[in-house]
Structure formats: structure tokens, C-alpha cells
Amino acid sequence: METGRKDATFGGMERAFSTKAMMQYDAFLRSARGEPIILPWKETPQTTNEKKKRKRLSRKNNRTWGLWATLPDNLLLSVMLLLNIVDYFAFSGVCRSWRSVATKWRDYYMERQKPLVVVKSKHAKKSCFLYNVFQGEKYKALLPNLRGNVFVGISCGYVVTLDRNSGFWLINLMTRHQLRFPLLPEDKMYIVDTDFYSLLVKSTRRSRFFMFAFSSFSNYVLLSQDGGKRWKVFTLPHITMGIADLKVFEKKIYVLSFRAQYICVMDPSSGEVKPFKTNIRIERHCVSTQLVILHNQLCMRTVSWLNSNRDYEKNLLYRLDMTKMVWVQKEEMGKYSLFADHWNATAVDASDWGSSNCICSIGSSWNSLLRFRSLANIWSLSLLGHDKSLAKVPIVWNACDQLIPYFWYFPGQSYNTVDCVD
């Protein structure tokens, strides 16, 4: 899965805009005017004399590159929407007018991008790879030196890594923005080695970033702010089997207990926790429960395996009735599809480029690494309108011969506001 040239790379690519993309623009403009497609340039000269000669010829024939900066914004936008992420960053570095269009429509462009699969090779110290399984493309994201750091999750467009000597280091793959959080208390450090989860939020009142840390084997939530020196512990006494998930919805924090016995509303400023006992019984073979924000509704997804080989799974979706605080089953997701990994589940409008009402999940074993399923029919596989051969990611093992964690990455989350609380 390559882009047709050497692996496209995040970081610094705006300095050298792809000649291939420029050729596509020229062809696009000429075809729009009904002119024959002509590529009026040769390969880039290698010597200073050749550069000077080319510059003189360009002036003589009145072929100036400055004309590219005068293209109308609506035409630049239509071309920009055809680019992949790497060429988008290169596009924004061509000139001031192109950068203006790219910045103005950045959120719109990013929201239209397909989810990417992120994986970090055991040998990589300064990079990770992002795979577009729908178009068969691979991108390389440059990162600071992560020697010794362990990937532990992705939250709101930030990759969450852990250095056992200095704490958590979060970095945004698109903007390069970095956040640091302290090391967990010594008596709580064990949760990183169990089933660890994290969530990044932003306080509108303090204008600071905060991170929640929790585990499915513990009944407490840890909270710390960016640049802080300690973690605050919130114990949830009603939860006895651990925490399944935590989400911010309408500026409130909702905590789901393991096997969905309770849904709790937590107020970090006062430390108050309001538990609500759920009205549904989770099946005995249920292996996962996750909270999902779906079209202005707080929902819950449950996953159950129907046989020991894990060939067939049953996905159920519920929405939370906020007035009665009870779960109501949903039969369909409308134009949305659900992208889920072990740590998170996110609803995406896939109607423009795939099928709706589908679930695309990343498994934890090599034989179930990537699964596409319909919410309505547990027995059928749906590939979102694409050929199955494109839906592949390489299998990567760590030093202990264990499957390296895979995460879904959503480009639109890198620039939009992080989930906010009061």
C-alpha cells in the first residue's frame, strides 16, 4: 500500500510540493477550458546554469509561475478536495493564496477524510505509519524521538505515549502540538499494564487540557492537567468490576461500568458522582461495551462472540434516554458508520464514500485484525462499497511476539476543538 512514490511523509512536506500534483492541476485547468493537456516543463535542472537558462526562457515566453497564485478560490477548493492528506499539506505551502484557501477550508477538508489505521513498528523510534485501508495508501508520520515510549492510545487526534520515567507525552500527528502529563502514582501505576484507557478534554473555564486515565480492572478515575505534577483520584464505590468507558457529552462526564451495570455522571470540580443502575442485562458472552456519541445522542455498543472461534459477532446499539436515564435499543445508525478498536468507538458520516449503518472494527488477534460488519445483519460482511483486497493492514509484532496495538485515527479530530467540560 504505497502512494505511487516513496512513502508520503508528514512533517516538512510543504517545502516541496509534488510535481505530480502540479501536473494534475495543469491538466485539470486545460481540460476545463477545452484545451489539449500539455505539460510545458521538463525535469528539474540539476545545475545552476540550467536553472538560469530556464528562468530566462520562462520570462521570454511569458510563462511565469506567478499565475498559479491568481487562480480563483472555488477552483482551488475543488482541486484541494481531490488530494490526499500529504498533498494537502504540500498544497498549503505553495503560495500565500493557496495557503489561505487551505486554512479557510481545513476543517471541512479534514472532516471529509476517511479514518486511518495507526500502528508503530517495534523498530521505529521517530515515526509511525498511517494506513488508508479504503484507498490502499500508506503515510509516514514523523514524531519526536520516542525511544522507550510506549503507545497506549489515541484521544481527540493526539497520540498518547508513556515514558515510565517522566510520564505521559501526547502529540498531535497533524499540528505537532504536544502535551505532557505527570507519571501515575506508584500505587496506581499497575493500571497501565492491565486494560488502560485515556481521554483528553479541555476545560472552557480554565482554558487548560486535562486527561482522564482509567482501567477496566479498577473502580477509580485519575485526572490531571497538562503540565501538572500530580493526579487526582475519583473513586466510584458503586462500580465493583471496573470501568468500561468514559465520554464527555454536552459538557458532562459519563462513566460506564464494566458489563454496563451502571452509568454514572461525574463532576470533577466537586467530586460528586451520580450513579444510575442500567435497565438491561448484558449477555454472558459479551466481550466489550463502549460509549459512542452518535448524532447528538449518547449511545452504547455491546459486542458478543457467538462461537469460540470468534468468527461471528453480535453488535447491539443502545441510546441513553436522558430524561429517564434508561437504555433504549437502536436498530440503525442512519447515514453513520461506526469505527471501533479496543479502546474507542467513533461514529462517522460515511455516506459520501462508503456504506451507512456499518461497523468497522480492529480486532486484537491476527486472524480478526480488520472486520467490516453490518449492524442489521451479524452474519454478513460489508466492505463499505470497496473491494476486500483493499481492506488490509500489515501484521506487526512487538519484541515479545505479541500483536502491536492498532488504533483508528480521525484526521478531523486533529483540528477541531477537543471535547470540552465546564
TrEMBL record:
Annotated transmembrane regions: 65-91
Glycoprotein as UniProt keyword: no
Domain F-box: start-end pairs: 65-112
Organism for this UniProt entry: Heracleum sosnowskyi
Gene3D superfamilies membership: 1.20.1280.50
Protein name per Swiss-Prot or TrEMBL: F-box domain-containing protein
Any Pfam family: F-box
Sorted UniProt keywords: Membrane, Transmembrane, Transmembrane helix
Origin superkingdom: Eukaryota
Phylogenetic classification of the source organism: Eukaryota, Viridiplantae, Streptophyta, Embryophyta, Tracheophyta
SUPFAM superfamilies referenced in this protein's UniProt entry, alphabetically: F-box domain
